[in-house]
Amino acid sequence: MTSRTCIDLSNKVALITGASRGIGRETASRMAEAGALVAINFNRSEEHARSLLEEIGSDRAMLVQADVAKPKDVERMIGAVLERFGRIDILVNNAGWHDYNRFEDDDYEAWQRGWQRTFETNLFGAANAAYLAMRSMRKTGGGRIINVSSRAAWRGETEFADYGASKAGMVNLTRSIARACAKDNIVASCVAPGFTATEIAKHELEVRGAEILAQIPLGRVGTVDDVAAAILFLASPMASYLNGVTIDINGGSWFQ
């Protein structure tokens, strides 16, 4: 294989939030295989994060605990990565939160808490991490920011509207970074997975598996490999002119 057909992230530093499980874990693993130095963010799943660190090797990766819903944690996370590796070339905003929060529910305070937690994790956490990572990127000649959105951004959701709204916000955040920061050679892109076999989707898939499969022309639910492959491509030199795009990864279940 030539350099034009092989993804090479040698000497690049990648920070992946929510990297202990699911899409984030597979993304971190693939980026390490491509030669990147990897910062594995986790919030509570330390055991899973440590097992990934062992797989990659402590000489090529580091752990950084942070709840991205908390601005001070995000600031500490970025600082820890810069202290260890000296730079951040790739930021993947993958950490996310999802729970039922129906319009019909009676508890108004619980409704507000749901929206607040979802937005603090999914959107504000991503925005804060991007803002702080870009400080380093500007000093080192640029970088990539890849946000993990969802099919829910386009479709609207009946049982977790806060999740769909936060993911729609991530798409617009991506476009805003793309327009505002291209002058600094900072490229932003986004992936919008449909139903993917992860822990966050486990309950929905168990309860509504047949209904979900009926929505997907390819006849199967997405895998973490499907999504991580697209993220790896967006982080690579092959995608250097893709700025502000969102790639739908849903097997044809929804089109913009």
Describe this structure in words.
This protein is an alpha/beta fold. It has a single domain, classed as NAD(P)-binding Rossmann-like Domain (Rossmann fold), CATH 3.40.50. The chain is built from 8 helices and 7 strands. It is globular, with a radius of gyration of 18 Å.
Short description:
The protein is an alpha/beta fold and 256 residues long.
The string of secondary-structure elements, in order, is EHEHEHEHEHHEHHE
Total of helices: 8
Rg is 18 Å
Q: What does the average pLDDT come to?
A: 95
Helix proportion: 40-55%
| Number of individual domains | 1
Regions with little confidence, pLDDT below 50 for 5+ residues: none
Global morphology: globular
Under the CATH scheme, which architecture would be assigned?
3-Layer(aba) Sandwich
Q: Which fold name is given in CATH as the topology?
A: Rossmann fold
Structural class: alpha/beta
Query: How is the biggest beta sheet arranged?
Result: 7 strands, parallel
β-sheet strand percentage: 5-15%
CATH H-tier superfamily: NAD(P)-binding Rossmann-like Domain
Instruction: Tell me the name of the CATH class.
Output: Alpha Beta
The separation of the N and C termini measures 35 Å
Biggest sheet: strand arrangement: 3-2-1-4-5-6-7
